[in-house]
Amino acid sequence: MFRSIFQRLRNDGQPKRLAFLGATPAERPTGAVIWVHAPKNASTAQIAALNDLRAALADAASDNVDQVTLLLTGLERLGERDAPVPDVSSGDTSDGPTAANSTCIIYTAAPRSLREAKRFVAHWAPDFALWIGHADPIPARFCADLGIPNALVDLDASALKERTSRTNLSSFDHVFTTEIPESASTRTIGPAHVHRGGPMAPDPVLPKCNEGEAEYLASHLQGRPLWLAACPSDSEIADVIAAHAAACQQVHRLLLILVLQTEQIAPQLEILRRANWQLRQRDIEGDPDPTCQIFVVDGIDELGLWYRLAPLTFLGGGLSDTGLALDPMAPAAMGTALISGPNGGAWQSQLTALLHNGAARYVSRGSHLTRAVTDLLGPDQAALLARNGWDIATQGALLQNELVALILSAVQQAHPQPPAPA
User: Fold this and answer.
1) Which of 195, 209, 247, 253 falls between 20 and 30 A from 377, CA-CA?
2) Main-chain dihedrals φ then ψ at residue 312, nearest 5 degrees
3) 135: closest CA among 150, 114, 122?
4) Mean pLDDT of 327-344
């Protein structure tokens, strides 16, 4: 009986209303409805990736439906650009479709019980259900019972080792996790297909790189070994300089590219000159000469250039209280090996993915930076980190492609194109 209710809701052109949580929810929109449950504390990367997914779905599904609606539970806002208009009669809020992507968002409360889950799934009749990070077994079970395709992404790999968690995963068609422990048997997770994929993150925004300038500098440096410190905090600079001094004892003619914020330049130049370092500045001398030991760059405008040239990069902020100053996926995607402390700040999920997958060298304190730099100036070690980093940096795009394919298949099945006129 419940299945027949669901089929009626899906196939009838007129949306239905059902009582839910003691109020009348908004009507089910026409077109495709994708239920997305994201945690309230979703990361910046997850929110950005959801916005990318929203746009990609509108484009991919345009042949089958005029509108794609994200039914969003858990997370209260998908972004600053989404200013929901309250529907005071229902407690739901919604964003209307935009001409740019023909999508809208409905924000509503997640079901909290078996009864609410039944009503929720029957009323909204989603074409696909996507959970981020947390497996809620009650609504997932009803999606499975009613034949609603579904997936779980950004699952903590430890859940694959726990009996209770594996039982909860049995209702999902697809489970994506950044790593699959060797001890986890996919045969114990019911029908779910476990994939290595993610984390859920947007394509990294790569800083611009002038290829002609990169070729010129590579030729000018004549193979000289170098490494990059990208926007270290004031508390990290002394450790960066100490690591460079130690590495210079082992690597002949080693050059440090030191990218600082504008307000750091004057005080740090004074400190470095008092320590008798041979310095040049990008905005004054232009290029490092053969005697230059530290090349100081003002600001991040040319950061893409230095990512491209440096085989090794220390990510500033990871050893400070504030966290990383820059998205670590950008340098990873540009092929430089990474060193970082534990504090990813706004980019914690990206940093964790890099560290856990052998794509960045972890240092727990500034005094460990010296060893990391000297170890990784050897080409083999840096190349391995760089290769792993590139793999992880592109996983977000690969995961999005897989999700779009899964969701599009469900939309095409639920909303088949009418046959072409004879």
Assistant:
1) 209
2) -140, 135
3) 150
4) 95
pLDDT over 60 (residue 13):
no
What amino acid occupies position 303? Answer: L
Please give the mean pLDDT across all residues of the chain: 83
Report the distance separating Cα 314 and Cα 256, nearest Å: 11
User: Which residues does 54 contact at the CB level (< 8 Å), separation at least 6?
Assistant: 68, 70, 78, 101, 103, 105
Backbone dihedral region of 27: left (phi > 0), alpha (psi from -120 to 50 degrees) or beta? beta
Question: What tokens appear for 322 in the block?
Answer: 């504030």
Please tell me whether residue 86 adopts helix, strand or coil conformation.
strand
Residue 116 has pLDDT above 60, yes or no: yes
Rg (CA), the chain: 26
| Listed residue (309, 337, 284) closest to 209, CA to CA | 309
pLDDT at 181: 65
CA distance 397 to 390: 12
DSSP, res 23: B
For 373, half-sphere exposure in the C-beta direction (CA atoms, 13 angstrom radius) is 30
Task: Tell me the pLDDT tens digit for each residue of 167-180.
Answer: 678 888 898 887 77
- Helix%, strand%, coil% for the chain, nearest 5: 40, 15, 40
Q: Label the pairing between strands 193-196 and 174-177.
A: parallel
Whose tokens are 């001398």? That residue is 285
Phi/psi at 340 (nearest 5 deg)? -155, 150
Tokens of 172: 């999902």
